[in-house]
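Task card 7
Instruction: Convert sequence to structure tokens.
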Amino acid sequence: MSLKKNKWGWIPSLAANSAPVIFHCAKDIRSELEEMDSHKLALIDRSTGKYEDIKVADDYVSVISPSLELLDKAKDSGQIGVHSVSEIASDLTPEFLEARGFKSVPKSVACGYTASGYGFVQDMPYAYIHEFTRTSMAGKIQRFKGGYMSFWKKLSEMLPIEVRCNTEVLAVRRDSDGVSFDVKNSNGEVEVKEFDKIIISGSFPFKNGKTYKAAPSSSAEPETEVMDMNELEKKLFSQVQTIDYYTTILKIKGLELVPVGFYYFEEFMDDPATIGHPVAMQRFYDNTDVFLFWSYGNSVDITGPTVIELATKTAKNMRGEVEEVVLQRRFKYFPHVSSKDMKEGFYKKLESELQGMSNTYYVSGLMAFELTERNASYATALVC
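Output:
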């Protein structure tokens, strides 16, 4: 269900019937998958470490009706990505579901969404929750053996193109004639590369967006942009928020009886005032005492050290002893816009006015939602 991380980085866990593009690609490149049937999904008490299974199937089945409604309307719209539902699912999630007879957001959906780094459900337009649930509800849950790197390595070896790693883009210049780059390779040498067009994926080369749950006055000094932006890009991207999201890996003694699985700290899921505390914990392997904690920051006064402190405190409350902080990674994650900006036509402008301008095309989580299948499907539809 959505993306999970292993000890050192991202491991995708995929619902087979909800990820046809990725599974088709995996089959073509003979990428091996492994089942995750033994992985528990549960709520865990941060004070005692006691856990109870969560009714995942029932909760996701309950949102099938609005999902099918939106899928039909998205197909009729002729649009792709988030744009296809942005006009019909721009209401905040509680309002959207209440209008369809729901008293609240189903617990498994809310926990899975927030734990995966997409923000608190009450803050988000339902369009984003729809993209999450439609990719999480059908088929066995599997992951790639050896993690994502094994998948990308096989894919890059089979493609008839040059794939460059450890290469830094220093500058991008665009005009009506084409695109040129200044890039620095792993040896520190700077090259100029020229192309007809540019497709930007992954992290966008802009720094004028906002951080989710950070005070407006707390924005850092503007950084130098890699790519000069036109006025439309500046206007649209200034509305984009990203999540200050952390994964912290701890070696913990005393939690040996916690089974392999994914555990939600429900008390930190509902209240944005608890930002910094872990929203979830994961144990991937039963032969190690390594645990992964997922947390939110705010880029200002809640950053890496605070996140480690609160994750360590949570482990201690569950009768665990943290022996080592193995690793921490920070992600500028899930570019998105508010319900208000979505209602005012953000995605319509993004797709009808920005795509293709200055020989530039955008694919990524902002356009399609921050999930592998959604991005793969969007990119395929845009390019093909």
